[in-house]
Specification:
The protein has about 150 residues and is an alpha+beta fold. The chain is about 45% helix and about 15% strand.
């Protein structure tokens, strides 16, 4: 879960017990209190819908491969253009480059020896054009990394 980062000021994972999450219960209570059950349902349905949109864009794009269909707000996928058997360092370098550019923040993960990108859809303002832009930037950074691996 925790990754060394050159842009640590934006990575709050090591500063809390829940990997960057602050007082979740209090925030959730306030949000629920402000929007009610119907508002919370709409918010969660919107986020789940956006995760499905992301999975759909990824599944339709030959540059990417879904690791699994999302069952939550996590959308895990690999780059087909990655070197054969890309390790965590390769994905971490792609993640770092995106963060350095300041346009997108995404995570990566490793499960069973397999590394991949882990997109967590939590921004209620996220839309399909932004997802498409993210995927294009991700593919561009990966392609640049392949051309100059150093």
């Amino acid at each position: 879960i925790f990754h060394d980062s050159d842009v640590g000021q934006w990575d709050f994972g090591k500063s809390s017990l829940q990997c960057g999450r602050r007082t979740d219960a209090v925030k959730t209570w306030f949000a629920w209190r402000a929007s009610g059950r119907a508002g919370m349902e709409e918010h969660i349905d919107g986020l789940m819908g956006m995760a499905q949109e992301a999975a759909s864009l990824i599944a339709q794009d030959p540059r990417f491969q879904l690791v699994a269909a999302p069952a939550s707000l996590n959308v895990c996928f690999k780059l087909r253009t990655a070197p054969e058997a890309p390790n965590a360092d390769w994905y971490r370098s792609i993640r770092e480059r995106l963060m350095q550019e300041g346009r997108f923040m995404v995570n990566m993960a490793t499960r069973g020896g397999e590394s991949f990108i882990r997109l967590i859809v939590v921004n209620p303002d996220l839309d399909v054009p932004t997802l498409a832009s993210f995927l294009n930037d991700l593919a561009r950074v990966a392609e640049t990394k392949l051309k100059s691996p150093g």
